[in-house]
Design goal:
single chain, mainly alpha, about 80 residues
């Protein structure tokens, strides 16, 4: 792998790592919301956080597969 490809991989990896952190954060926040949010906001807050986590999980999977394919071609 040449230097340019290594640099590209570094940024691709960083990008999917940030997305994965978002998935973990919003999933955890959704679970915490059920117990700690005020009564009126428990269900809506939890549902919104879990939906965001689900969307980010889809984005993560798509980006992961693209990065894996790119790595197979450039490794």
């Amino acid at each position: 792998m040449n230097e340019s490809a290594k640099e590209q991989f570094k940024w691709k990896f960083w990008h999917i790592a940030v997305i994965l952190n978002g998935v973990i954060f919003f999933f955890a926040l959704g679970v915490i919301a059920i117990f700690l949010f005020p009564q009126a906001w428990r269900v809506p807050g939890s549902v919104v956080c879990l939906l965001i986590a689900l969307v980010l999980a889809g984005v993560f999977r798509r980006q992961y597969l693209k990065t894996k394919e790119w790595l197979d071609q450039n490794a």
